[in-house]
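Section 4.2 – Deliverable D4.2 (structural model, holo form)

The reporting period included a commitment to supply a predicted holo structure for the target in complex with glutamic acid. Inputs used:
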Amino acid sequence: MDVDVAGVEQAVSTGSLPGWDRVDQLVVAAYDRSAASEGGVVADYIPALSEVDPRLFAVCVAQTDGAVHSVGDADVEFSIQSISKAFVYALVCEALGHEAVRERVGVDNTGLAFDSVMAIELNGGHPRNPMVNAGAIATTAMLPGRTATERWERIRSGLSAFAGRDLEVDDEVYRSETRTNQRNRAIARLLESYGRVELDPLEVVDVYTRQCALRVSARDLAVMGATLADGGVNPVTGQRVVAEGVCRDTLAVMASAGMYERSGEWLFEIGMPAKSGVSGGIVAISPGKGGIGTFSPRLDDAGNSVRGQRAIAYLSRALGLNLFASVPHVSPIDLH
Ligand code: GLU
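Output (structure tokens):
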């Protein structure tokens, strides 16, 4: 326990992971227990996403000490999609601070679909949180930069620093989504009409579409998650990417809104901040301990990867990652 300058006693609730061998064994067990799940369907509203092999599956854990455990198709790349929202949010918080982003984008769950126009209307043009498309587009629009190219480069290099390697755009996915993203363009126009986006809305959607098309692997997601778990320092490269307070803010919005309309249920059953994307990735974070990255393209009806959720549910319990659990427990997800 530390005492800060105001004389207030401070403490954190983080513990530690078991030894390397045990974590490795449990990552394999998480993969084996989830691999046979056949449920879910591959997203096809972005045409290029439907071409993925639905059998792909990877589970990775990156520890805050830099150790990385992986099983399955851990190096297969896919477009990051909505998971980018969490990391771009972190970059914007780093650049502009907690209050500015909180005021403009918000931190509360909408209870409605990620691409809901009704949610914007119901809230007088306020996007509510950065994990839905409206909030993510508003967040991307806040990123400092004189031109769209400068803002884009800031995102690409920022997310690359989280991953610890140079990330590149999947051109096919970018072009495919650009041809079919009328809804996101409409959302950006609506935000513009409410004064929530001041730049050219179509230019902002273009940057947003590119950020969603950045290629990552499950291993990258684990390392990106571990960077948030490690207070903003990438544990593999040692580079500080964002400040500690930014990680706290980012993890809080992931906890409230990272798993689409199932965010409450996820927190209730699994107890970890997480973000999923329509291409089948999930990143989940245990502050102080590490990040989990999974990839499996078949999604449930809320848009979350079926096998990814199962694997993380298992690891949350087996590694003691549930933020709300003070003693080991069995989650109902383990029972079916
Ligand atoms: N680029 C996708 C969209 O804006 C991301 C959706 C997602 O992964 O939830 O529709």
